[in-house]
Amino acid sequence: MKKAIFVLAAMLVIGTGATVLANPDTLSSDKEGKQLTEKFQQLTRDNGWEQKEEIDLKFNTYHPQGLTKVGDLYYMSSVEIIEKPVKYDKPKDGYDRTTGKGVGHLFLFNKEGKLLKDIKLGEGDMYHPGGIAFDGTSIWVSVAEYRPNSKSIIYKVNPETMESQEVFRTNDHIGGILRDRKKGTLKAISWGSRSFYEFNEKGKILRKSSNPSHFIDYQDCENAGKNHMVCSGITELPQPAPSTAKYELGGLALLDMKTMDMVHELPISLFSPKGHVVTRNPVFLENTTQGIKLYAVPDDDQSSMLIYETNISKK
């Protein structure tokens, strides 16, 4: 589902030739976050998004899930599906489908689309990473079973070393997670984002609430300045008979992190060369001088990262 990271720290060159941030604790800018939030609330369906770049990713991306940016490097979670889950005729043991089999990945790549590192995350039936987010120090990743009402492992990953640390486990499918830098708690979404969670870093549920919006299912979310988060996602709508194809309705939403109420949302009608709405998979938003930049990887397997910009002053 889903984003704003604003880079103020000095840069450091490491052995791979990649660039990372020397001081990740000073990444967040309240001023930049405030600007992004204010601009987002001015977005309407009339805003034009101009494609600026299409970067071919030079590796198998499988089924991308979450995207975040640190300096000039990109981090993307993805699920490699080996055996697709199969729905039961009727629920068994509280589940609506089999577990399937797969591998969870967190990729690190550069602005040329070159893969710099690939780490595996997950365990057993928990192989499906969700939306990811960077909190200024760590990248947070949830890895769940590929079915609703299941189980998840929550990890944090050092963006410089790509070393992962299991933080806690919880009894639901967590489809995306981010850390509230002000409170130190973790905000999370369930399968289809029908439920919102707030955890402490020991995994205790501090709050659970229902998502009042049914416009889209959030896929990827990230911090967007003081007390706000931006989520992206889709919903699949049926088309008139005899067509059996689904229309992918894409969208973005700004949420109040204190209440998890929707502040502003809008549809996105940009499509990839393969016909997928750009908010189908991971999305990352960035503040620019004139407006907002959107990064997206909507297609599976042999993917491209599509980069768009919109000018808030020109609609």
UniProtKB/TrEMBL annotation:
<feature type="signal peptide">
    <location>
        <begin position="1"/>
        <end position="22"/>
    </location>
</feature>
<dbReference type="Pfam" id="PF20055">
    <property type="entry name" value="DUF6454"/>
</dbReference>
<keyword id="KW-0732">Signal</keyword>
<protein>
    <recommendedName>
        <fullName>Lipoprotein</fullName>
    </recommendedName>
</protein>
<dbReference type="InterPro" id="IPR046312">
    <property type="entry name" value="DUF6454"/>
</dbReference>
